[in-house]
Design a protein that fits this description.
The structure is a single chain. The chain has one domain. The chain has 19 helices and no strands. Helix 2 packs antiparallel against helix 12. It is globular and about 60 Å long. The two termini are 42 Å apart.
């Protein structure tokens, strides 16, 4: 009974279960959605749609990714201190920064969408979609900061609810627009898919604002909103920026490299001998069909990773280094077991899954090859979150950039010679090396902490 009670009231376990259940449900919905898109718009359409992802990722990285993590860290002590006023000020400071940066991104992407599509993505058909997507950035920024707050206080209910609602709104709105256009005798364009992105972000924005209002009203804070001088808010903003800057730089550099990777894979495939249409089709099958299926089981690992950051940060604040070492050991052990299980499943059923789900034998071949990255990918995901929780964001940055540079070398030198198989080799090599170095770096820091505590240093 005691262990059962501990299980129920452990925020890491309960939060993980909530996020995992929601993530699996949304990914199931997402699979049917991707199947729908692939059947309506084809493999080439999926390739064009996937080319817009780097632009969205860069905008998110610049405006909110680092701030979201910083907000999570600075409100992590609220459950024990009940200092709601400080959390409120952190939210105001983080939200203001995120909104300002996201509006700047909206202006740049909307104003220069034609240039970005033609000269950076090498696909002019992306321009209309970029203009639509740009409208979602401010809404995304606000609800991401709100999610960062709820992750920080280990309350997974709002992020889980918005995740499910987002997916439902996106899929439902696109399907309704498709039905309307076809009933009018019109052929829907792939740009319809990005309208759902804007609608889901708008709905998430209003839900997040409502949830924050109810949260602070419940604790009585809104009856006397905490006032603070400009100096106080400037101090909080400075603290957020100091932590967010390396994380943001990390994500920007990583997403820039990922953008180069995404753009040059079709270009390298054309050098290999494929036509523009075939290159986009292969890229669409890989990034829009095979990789999402490989990433599907990572719902559990992603949920654990999100909640590991505040857990490790809180343990570090208490100087509970033994707890940190136990967390690292369990993260590696469970991620390895789970990854090996997923690899076996994809080896046995991957080819069949590609045919049944996407009606693509090429997707099945990709799934079979990519199955080997599962253990390594899951381990690096959890260890990166632990490093961020320890405040070692610089190490996370260097490791991530190193893995991407390895993949880019394969894109530039092996894909033109061996086709998409060269890129799959690059994925395997980068994940293997990342896992080795992640384990080495985490063990180094945790052993150093324990040595310092014991008084040896």
């Amino acid at each position: 009974m005691r262990s059962l009670s501990h299980f129920k009231h452990n925020p890491l376990i309960t939060g993980t279960l909530i996020l995992t259940a929601t993530s699996f449900l949304t990914r199931i919905i997402g699979f049917f959605y991707r199947i729908f898109l692939s059947q309506i718009f084809g493999e080439e359409g999926m390739g064009i749609y996937q080319l817009t992802a780097p632009v969205m990722a860069l905008a998110f990285s610049f405006s909110v990714s680092g701030l979201q993590t910083a907000v999570s860290k600075y409100v992590a002590g609220e459950p024990s201190t009940h200092d709601y006023s400080s959390s409120f000020r952190v939210l105001i400071s983080g939200g203001t920064l995120a909104c300002t940066l996201s509006l700047f991104c909206t202006f740049i992407v909307y104003r220069y969408s034609d240039y970005i599509a033609s000269n950076l993505l090498f696909e002019s058909r992306c321009a209309p979609m970029l203009r639509i997507i740009a409208l979602s950035f401010p809404f995304s920024a606000v609800h991401s900061i709100a999610k960062g707050y709820f992750y920080g206080i280990k309350n997974a209910k709002l992020p889980a609810a918005t995740q499910l609602i987002e997916q439902t709104v996106r899929v439902g709105s696109v399907y309704l627009i498709y039905l309307y256009l076809t009933s009018q005798g019109k052929e829907p364009a792939i740009a319809v898919a990005v309208i759902g992105v804007v609608l889901e972000e708008c709905v998430s924005f209003f839900i997040s604002i409502a949830a924050l209002y109810l949260r602070f009203q419940k604790v009585g804070l809104l009856c006397s909103i905490p006032h603070a001088c400009r100096y106080r808010y400037a101090t909080i903003t400075g603290c957020l920026l100091r932590m967010a800057f390396p994380l943001t730089l990390n994500r920007i550099v990583i997403n820039l490299l990922q953008s180069v990777e995404a753009v040059y894979i079709p270009a390298a495939l054309r050098t290999f001998g494929l036509s523009q249409s075939d290159a986009l089709s292969v890229y669409g099958v890989l990034t829009g069909m095979a990789l999402p299926l490989i990433l599907f089981p990572s719902a559990l690992i992603s949920s654990v990773s999100v909640l590991l950051l505040p857990t490790v940060a809180e343990a570090q604040a208490r100087s509970d280094y033994a707890s940190i070492r136990r967390t690292v050991s369990r993260a590696i052990r469970y991620s390895s077991f789970f990854g090996a299980f997923c690899t076996l499943g994809f080896l046995l059923f991957g080819r069949m899954a590609g045919l049944l789900l996407f009606r693509s034998s090429l997707a099945g071949d990709f799934i079979l090859t990519l199955s080997f990255i599962c253990p390594f990918m899951y381990i690096t995901s959890t260890l990166s979150s632990i490093l961020n929780g320890l405040g070692k964001t610089g190490s996370t940055f260097l490791l991530s950039v190193g893995g991407l540079l390895i993949r880019l070398l394969f894109v530039f030198f092996l894909v033109p010679r061996f086709g998409i198989l060269g890129y799959l080799w690059g994925l395997l090599a980068s994940e293997l090396l990342l896992t080795f170095f992640d384990i080495a770096v985490v063990r180094y820091f945790t052993q150093s902490y324990c040595t310092e505590k014991s008084g040896i240093l």
